[in-house]
Every structure is written in C-alpha cells, then in structure tokens.
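Work Package 4 report. The design task specified in the project plan requires that, given a folded chain encoded as structure tokens, an amino acid be chosen for each position. We show below one input record used in the internal validation round.
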C-alpha cells in the first residue's frame, strides 16, 4: 500500500500518548500537534539513519531562536499553521523515533500479511463492534480519495516536465484506488484462515494489552494521569503493537531528556543502541 495504515495509526498513538505525558518537553508536544504530517514522514528515513540525532542536537540549544525563523517547508496544503524548518524537522525526528519502533515490531512477513493487519486495525480502531457495510466503506474511502487527490494536486508541479508530473499523479491515484479496493474487501469479507495466520498467530494486536487500552482511551478523549501512563508502561507487553508502543514511548522520553539538556548525545545513542 502507499503507506501502511498500521504505521500511520501507530505514530498517531505514540504522539497522543507523548502529549498526555508530564515528562515530555513542551517543544515535542507542540510540534507533534502542529506538524503531525511531518512526523509521519519519519518513515521515509532508514532505521539506522542518524537524522534524528543530528536534528535533536542541532535544535536543542536555544530552541526558541530556531523556531522563529520562518521558511517555506513541505506542501502547499500542509496544516494551516506558521511553518519553520526547525519545527518541521523536529517533528520529523520524533516520527523517525516512532517509526523505528514500528519497524522493529510491526514489519509484516508479506504484503498480504500487512493488508490483513491493516484491516484488523481498521476494524478495531475505526469500525468497532457495530460493523460496516460495503456501501459505508465505499463512501468513506471516496471522501478519503478526494482528500488524497487534493493533497497530491497541491504539490508544486514540475514545470519542466508537466506531462510527466500529471502521469505520476495519475499513477498515484490509481494505486490509491487499488489499495483501498483491496483493503475494503479484507475489512468486510476477510478470509478467516488468513486472519488466523496473519493476525492471531502473529500476535499482532491484543486489546487487553495495558498500553493498547491506554492508547484507545486517549484516542477516545481520555486524559490519563502520569501515574496511569507509568503503570501501563510497567506491564509487560504481549502483542507486537504493544511492544512497539513500549519501545517508542521510552525512546521519546529519552529523546526529551536529551533535548532539554539533561543528558549527552552518547548516552542517548547508547539508549537507542544505534
């Protein structure tokens, strides 16, 4: 798929939990709210890349001065907030940390396995117990496709190769349609043997995991206390999704300690074992 629904939802859960935590610096929380799109771009970097360390080290000294230098960054259709290179870059670094945990625990064995895991997460997080019909799903994906097209259309076009640019845009739209058609089939009418193999036997997602219950609560508007967050982190995670959350939150905490000057770079690198 163009981007794993699991990865996208996972990064959102990480940032939501980070924003609910008292032990995360305000700079991290602010950029995760206003530049969340850039955090998702952390998937575009390799897990062994040094970009997060370089960005955190660059901006942790005198952050307020860095964040006031306004520049044109990213999409014309990015969220309607003042953009600076520092804020966008810091959000990217946070996304890299989250995506790195996802790669470690949520990389599917095949494209088909990833499709079934995306469908499982879609049912768990967006559909609920009431179910969803093909018609309702088609309507939802139609709205998402329109948003996707608007986002792609507002890229700055390649003026030197405008026909090639439109061809690439058309190809991306076709890929989106194909991906959504496949996902819709698996959401509404999955092969139960494949659900057993790719979801249950792989221990992908367990709603009884303490961290998953916490993420669900925050997604529904809950405001957990720091002691509740710490309690969930203290419980041994069972599923891959919860293991990834556990690693990501601990890593984001360590990054916050480094960013605020309470730790040195070598200690942060050692913690992430890069």
């Amino acid at each position: 798929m163009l981007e794993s629904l699991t990865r996208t939802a996972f990064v959102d859960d990480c940032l939501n939990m980070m924003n609910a935590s008292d032990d995360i610096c305000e700079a991290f929380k602010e950029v995760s709210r206003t530049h969340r799109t850039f955090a998702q771009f952390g998937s575009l970097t390799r897990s062994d890349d040094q970009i997060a360390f370089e960005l955190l080290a660059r901006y942790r000294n005198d952050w307020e001065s860095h964040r006031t230098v306004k520049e044109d960054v990213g999409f014309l259709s990015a969220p309607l907030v003042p953009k600076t290179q520092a804020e966008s870059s810091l959000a990217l670094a946070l996304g890299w940390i989250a995506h790195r945990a996802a790669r470690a625990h949520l990389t599917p064995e095949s494209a088909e396995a990833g499709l079934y895991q995306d469908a499982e997460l879609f049912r768990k997080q967006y559909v609920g117990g009431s179910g969803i019909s093909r018609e309702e799903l088609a309507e939802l994906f139609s709205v998402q496709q329109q948003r996707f097209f608007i986002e792609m259309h507002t890229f700055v076009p390649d003026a030197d190769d405008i026909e090639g640019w439109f061809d690439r845009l058309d190809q991306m739209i076709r890929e989106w349609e194909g991906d959504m058609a496949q996902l819709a089939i698996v959401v509404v009418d999955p092969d139960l043997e494949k659900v057993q193999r790719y979801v249950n036997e792989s221990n992908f997602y367990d709603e009884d995991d303490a961290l998953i219950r916490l993420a669900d609560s925050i997604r529904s508007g809950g405001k957990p206390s720091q002691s509740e967050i710490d309690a969930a982190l203290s419980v041994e995670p069972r599923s891959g999704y919860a293991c990834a959350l556990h690693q990501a939150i601990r890593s984001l905490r360590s990054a916050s300690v480094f960013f605020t000057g309470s730790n040195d770079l070598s200690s942060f690198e050692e913690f992430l074992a890069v």
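The chain has two domains: 1-109+205-273, 112-201. Validation will be extended to a larger panel in the next phase.
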